[in-house]
Write a structure and sequence with these properties.
The protein has five helices and no strands. By secondary structure, the chain is an all-alpha fold.
Length: 136
Amino acid sequence: MLSEAMTALAAAGGTAVVQAAGTDAWQTVRARAARLLGRGGEEPTRVAVEQLDRVAARLEGDGTPETEASRIGMAFGALLTGLDEAARREAAAELRELIALTEDRAGDRIDFSGTFHGPVLGKGTQRISYGEAPRR
């Protein structure tokens, strides 16, 4: 059985992977998560890549982020549970690095939500800035 800290780490890893889906960071996060879940084995890593791709596809479809994060978090939890103490510490460090990678990239993304109905009329220039506002 995992400690509370390891369970929380696994859940945070699932959330981090889901947050990266659909962003520029996805390929890097996907590769690292698959390598971690596959523990370096060629076939297990390939299977993990396929599973992560299915997660991303579900998120683009009707999958909910909470469900997919839970699914990946459970996979990380199962991985950590099956390791001896030394390997668990190593995997936990890798998982923390994966989480940090997505946190570092969080400023690169802006989430929008809502629905717009109707035509857009007008002319001119629209400027959209990401990150800090330009200085004038």
